[in-house]
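Figure 2 data, in text form.
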Amino acid sequence: MREPVIPPGAQTLSVLTTRAPGTGHAPAGGHPGRAPEPHGAAAMAAARKPPWLKVRARFGPNYTELKQLMRGSDLHTVCEEAGCPNIFECWEAREATFLIGGEVCTRACPFCQIGTKKPDGYDTDEPRRVAHAVARMGLKFAVITGVARDDRPDGGAWLFAETTRQVRELLPGCGVEVLIPDFRGKPDALRQVTDAAPEVLGHNIETVPRLFKRIRPGFRYDRTLELLVRAREWLPPDSPTKSNLILGMGEEVDEVLDTMRDLRDAGVELLTISQYLQPTKEHLPVARYVHPDEFAELKQAAEALGFAHVESGPLVRSSYHAGQMHKAAVLKLRGELPAWAAAD
């Protein structure tokens, strides 16, 4: 296994995702790929959120404990900052998602609420602090996601690898999932992350080929699949790869099915399918709200294609039930629980 190369220099950015009060999204670079607004009946339908998107808060003992812990620290999670509707479920299961690499991104996806501009620094102490946050929260499974860092030669790959190592050293009983950008397709950057052997490696394809250039500017459909193929080849057998599809951005069902086939051909074993919700009026408008029955049908289709585990629904997000997905997939594929779950 390669020795990690520590990048020179370190300036403090946010430990986890933060947002200045009252700033909202306000992306510095704008969203050049924004789609035209829907008109007429389509606009009216997209403006009214259906009842199945309403969530009832359930405050269990683990959720309450983690909430109190976070109030006593200067750390924030994506779960809180993004207003994720699944925070109650995930925190009750002692799962949380952290954002590394800063609070701005070098890409400008029109559906994403993270601001876009060139980052001001690179915080090499961040992995240690995230690991200590995971330990203080007593998490059983942690998801580490991050912004694209095209300003760095390795695209920020070292941060993902080092955070994985730091969490594992400090809390050996905690599973780690990383959700990574594409590192501009650089194999050496990806290899840094796979050498750290996270329990799950995720890279989200998000949409279908026809919409890719507009929805994922700066990314490429073929490069996304290539990354997933390499990751599957380089990861340990019990570390599955994972991806996400977002519905409601103008895709057709047949296109979604074709994209799922492409993901399976790339060796992806875990899949989440979610509903797009417009963060602000400056973002890509919602083309439609997909009915839960359609999500159920897509789940069945994905399972028929051979995905080991699928979460599909209007409120699903890419880190939804992350630990449970990994546990179920390893049990199905290997016939035993992963080490982090077996130690519970």
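Caption note: The radius of gyration is 19 Å.
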